[in-house]
């Protein structure tokens, strides 16, 4: 059991809004008392192996706090972080909770709302930088529409682009060193959120003035809501060099945003995700954007936090075992037929390559008849996950 004990080198993080979630839902009120940021830091300090705490601006400082109140909150939270050996790797802005954002923040049709959103975000960036955060996440929870009758979505994208370009320059002007990470979601709380998937975000980033500063923060639940394969979206982000941050939780496809404990709903997909991250050397934060079940008290919340971490570490070990399994790797080699000469032709276009490819006589019926042992490979994967390999 000790081999699954976490260390801070794993960079496991939680948000003030995750372990501090009071269990409210649309059909029922809170089941747990509201904790202060200081109390949340103490709770996570007792869990063990937690690297840091992330926050939205108003998770830490209420939107209507006075300067004196803000100063005390910041001072007390800094002490709590130090007392519990925690840091703040990522910060973000709440641009969805207040009524002013009911029709969007950066994409609102009202220029006054857009200007306030920029003002609020600059202040939140100042706060994040004060705590040493280097990643800044943007989730456009209200950036979208219930009906397209109200505004042109291309105008919304233009406004969002202008905002990000402005904020990139603000970060550079202040030497904050932020890397911006855009978080996609198809719906909820809006009926239709702009830039609904990680792929949408990756395309959008290339239209910005400073694309090198902007990457993505994919979340398991958000892609699963749309019935998509989250691991494939993370792979695309890795391939583009844009995986700046990641939100780990779990989700039953087609449901509301459930934010289950990591690995709670689809253990096989969680396995392939952990394997991908480790195979490709991802070394950023592993942020659990998840909530404990509504049935739990705060002892149960600690169990939830430990469970997120423990499941990740178990799956990391399983991935290493899968990579070292001779029978599994033999099947992989059988499926993936390598040919360095053909690969060279594909990767270097030339007249000679065209001529050579056109001249090759492929045995189409034989290639089509070749069996690929995916059934056996998948079964061996399942047996490994179930603990009998």
Summarize the structure.
With 389 residues, the chain is α/β, with parallel strands linked by helices. It has helices at residues 16-19, 37-47, 57-60, 67-83, 111-130, 153-173, 198-205, 220-225, 230-239, 267-279, 298-324, 326-335, 340-347, 351-359, 364-369, 374-385, and strands spanning 12-15, 52-56, 90-92, 135-139, 144-145, 179-183, 192-193, 214-216, 247-248, 286-288.
Verbal overview:
This protein is of the alpha/beta class and 389 residues long. The chain has 2 domains: 2-321, TIM Barrel (Alpha-Beta Barrel), CATH 3.20.20.150; 326-385, no CATH class. It has 16 helices and 10 strands. The chain has helices at residues 16-19, 37-47, 57-60, 67-83, 111-130, 153-173, 198-205, 220-225, 230-239, 267-279, 298-324, 326-335, 340-347, 351-359, 364-369, 374-385, and strands spanning 12-15, 52-56, 90-92, 135-139, 144-145, 179-183, 192-193, 214-216, 247-248, 286-288. The strands form 2 sheets. An 8-stranded parallel β-sheet has the order 8-6-4-3-2-1-10-9. Strands 5-7 form a two-stranded antiparallel sheet. The longest helix has 27 residues, at 298-324. The model has no long low-confidence stretch (mean pLDDT 96).
């Amino acid at each position: 059991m000790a081999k699954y004990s976490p260390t801070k080198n794993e960079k496991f993080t939680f948000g003030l809004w995750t372990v501090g979630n009071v269990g409210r839902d649309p059909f029922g009120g809170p089941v747990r008392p509201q904790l202060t940021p200081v109390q949340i830091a103490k709770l996570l300090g007792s869990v063990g192996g937690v690297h840091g705490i992330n926050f939205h601006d108003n998770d830490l400082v209420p939107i209507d706090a006075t300067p004196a109140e803000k100063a005390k909150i910041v001072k007390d939270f800094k002490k709590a972080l130090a007392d519990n050996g925690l840091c703040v790797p990522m910060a973000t802005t709440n641009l969805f909770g207040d009524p002013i954002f009911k029709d969007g923040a950066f994409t609102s049709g009202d220029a006054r709302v857009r200007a306030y959103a920029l003002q609020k975000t600059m202040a939140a960036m100042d706060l994040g930088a004060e705590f040493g955060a280097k990643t800044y996440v943007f989730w456009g929870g209200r950036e979208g529409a219930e009906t397209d009758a109200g505004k042109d979505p291309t105008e919304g994208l233009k406004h969002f682009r202008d905002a990000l370009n402005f904020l990139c320059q603000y970060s550079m002007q202040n030497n904050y060193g932020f890397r911006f990470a855009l978080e996609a979601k198809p719906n909820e709380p809006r009926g239709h959120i702009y830039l609904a998937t990680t792929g949408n975000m990756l395309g959008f980033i290339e239209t910005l003035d400073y694309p090198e500063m902007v990457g993505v923060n994919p979340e398991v639940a958000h892609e699963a809501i749309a019935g998509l394969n989250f691991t494939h979206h993370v792979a695309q982000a890795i391939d583009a060099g844009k995986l700046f941050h990641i939100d780990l939780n779990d989700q039953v496809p087609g449901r509301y945003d459930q934010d289950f404990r990591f690995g709670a709903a689809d253990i096989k997909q969680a396995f392939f995700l952990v394997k991908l991250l480790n195979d490709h050397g991802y070394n950023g934060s592993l942020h659990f954007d998840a909530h404990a079940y509504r049935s739990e008290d705060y002892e149960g919340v600690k169990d939830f936090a430990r469970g997120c971490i423990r499941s990740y570490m178990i799956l990391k070990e399983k991935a290493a075992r899968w990579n070292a399994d001779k029978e599994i790797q033999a099947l992989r080699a059988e499926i993936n037929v390598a040919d360095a000469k053909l690969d060279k032709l594909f990767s270097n276009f030339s007249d000679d390559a065209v001529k050579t490819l056109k001249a090759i006589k492929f045995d189409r019926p034989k290639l089509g008849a070749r069996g690929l042992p995916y059934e056996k490979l998948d079964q061996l994967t399942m047996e490994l996950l179930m603990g009998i390999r």
